[in-house]
Amino acid sequence: MTALYIVGGIVALILLLMIIAPKKYDVSRSISINKPKDEVFQYVRSLEKMANWSPWDEKDPNMDKKFTGTDGEVGSVSYWNGNKEVGEGEQELTKIVRGERIEAELRFFKPFKAESDCYFDFKGDHKSTDLTWGFSGKHKPVASIFMMFMGSMDKAVGGDFEKGLAKLKGILEG
């Protein structure tokens, strides 16, 4: 009988955690780049050039990468398969509003299956650009419990966004 109470308590705890755990995440970082908005937009829209400034490419410079479609156009896809830090997945450009916004879908295959939305917002003029890089999605129930104990998604990827944006700024301004 005691075992039944213990199992019931564990199930109740898991259900409670699933109810109170965060279901959605939205992480974004911004940077100001001293280059015209159109120039920044053209560079960022290229999935192939992303390897020059992506913080994840530094974590595994030998990862297997493949590109399909016309680079920088809706429907182009960047596939990667790397070490445990970067896993396996792909990014597909899904919407481009010229000079203003780029949207992409991220599909992760390993170490876990997940989908997220990625976006870049551009504000500025012919002298400088304010660029925002964002990432949003929904946690699966078990992942939401995991994130309660491991820290927020903001803590998990926010620093990587900052590092990538700083490197991008250095490339474009350098």
Automatic annotation (TrEMBL):
Keyword Transmembrane helix: yes
Regions crossing the membrane: 6-22
Source superkingdom: Bacteria
Name of protein: Polyketide cyclase
Keyword Cytoplasm: no
Record key words, sorted: Membrane, Transmembrane, Transmembrane helix
